[in-house]
Amino acid sequence: MISQLPDHLICHILSLLSTKEAVKTSVLSTRWRQLWLWLPSLELKSRDFSDFNNFMSFGYRFFDSNRVSCKHKLKLTIHRNEDGVKDAYYLTPWLKAAVKHKIQHLHVHSYSYADHRFHKMPQRLYTCHTLVCLKLFQVTLDDAGFVFLPKLKTMHLEYVKFPNEATFETLVLCCPVLEDLKIFVANDDGKVFRVHSLSLKRLTFERVSSFFSDSAGVVIDAPRLCFLKINDNVSKRFIVDSLDSNTILDMSLVFGLEEVDKTNWDEFDDGAVLGEFDESIVSPMRSSISDFLSGISRVSDMSICARTFKSFQWLPNFLESFPNLKSLSLVCIAKNVYDDYINEINFSSSSVPECLLSSLEFVEIIAPIYYAAVVELINYLLKNEFFVDI
């Protein structure tokens, strides 16, 4: 009975199966032999094949440029191969065919190693007018010439290599309806990442590395931003254009002071207190920190990691920059000696932050209760007649 259905209905049924199961139906009869090739979506993993050459042969069959069916979703997971195939030349015709056939969702995950080059995405990708969602992992992007992605709403770029700063900036600028952007920066990437978007609503930026760069920075100009998460222990410069009061902010920043701290850690014992840095090193960073606080001062919902206090110095003084704050989450889980910043928070400030007296409605503390500073923080909040959720 199913075989009597028209092709497009059978293809719809097959699209509800995994790619592996859909391909197996080709042995049912002559009627079914070619139907899987017309599927609108495909999830392809190189490890599902006996060798890499079989994986490529399968891909060439599916991405036949003469086939006119639309390809709505493509997810490629490419693992390191042991068959001597080091160049990703096969990806160019595959992705060009996907763009030609009006791809809407494209995910490319390439698990590269030190002895393998990252797979390069074709420039044709920059002008895919049907693309709605783009997720790339460990690939290289070509130098951006002309870019126009008029329907792209979601873009996740994890450990992607950019030839220059202008390529990333142009890529974001030329997505007029982009709403969700996620960036995980490679360990050795010290670029300035500039995010300029009139449509962006959610932004996640992560740059965590043991390598430090004086040139690394972040610039954010997105007036419609509703959610911003930054986890960065490398960048020393942050410029954020005024966030709206409804923006949810989640941050873990050190403004480059972690590098200074690790360099001089042996000079202090375990009781080292906040602020024992060389003033000549810290002073140039004060204006950068001040400008950043000015840009985020209107937010009312914020989650911050304890390591951030190493940069902001004292929690009460930090909270004075947020007169409209309504909800605050403090994450103070120490993983090693460098993350044990909760013991260094200073509550000696004589003035009480305005938000604590007026706007703040909820405080959540995620921390081991045995830290003396946690108890001191709770006492500080209770002293100022504030309810605490622990």
UniProtKB/TrEMBL annotation:
<dbReference type="InterPro" id="IPR006566">
    <property type="entry name" value="FBD"/>
</dbReference>
<protein>
    <recommendedName>
        <fullName>F-box domain-containing protein</fullName>
    </recommendedName>
</protein>
<dbReference type="InterPro" id="IPR053781">
    <property type="entry name" value="F-box_AtFBL13-like"/>
</dbReference>
<dbReference type="InterPro" id="IPR036047">
    <property type="entry name" value="F-box-like_dom_sf"/>
</dbReference>
<dbReference type="InterPro" id="IPR055411">
    <property type="entry name" value="LRR_FXL15/At3g58940/PEG3-like"/>
</dbReference>
<feature type="domain" description="F-box">
    <location>
        <begin position="1"/>
        <end position="35"/>
    </location>
</feature>
<dbReference type="Pfam" id="PF00646">
    <property type="entry name" value="F-box"/>
</dbReference>
<dbReference type="InterPro" id="IPR050232">
    <property type="entry name" value="FBL13/AtMIF1-like"/>
</dbReference>
<dbReference type="InterPro" id="IPR032675">
    <property type="entry name" value="LRR_dom_sf"/>
</dbReference>
<dbReference type="InterPro" id="IPR001810">
    <property type="entry name" value="F-box_dom"/>
</dbReference>
<dbReference type="Pfam" id="PF24758">
    <property type="entry name" value="LRR_At5g56370"/>
</dbReference>
<dbReference type="Pfam" id="PF08387">
    <property type="entry name" value="FBD"/>
</dbReference>
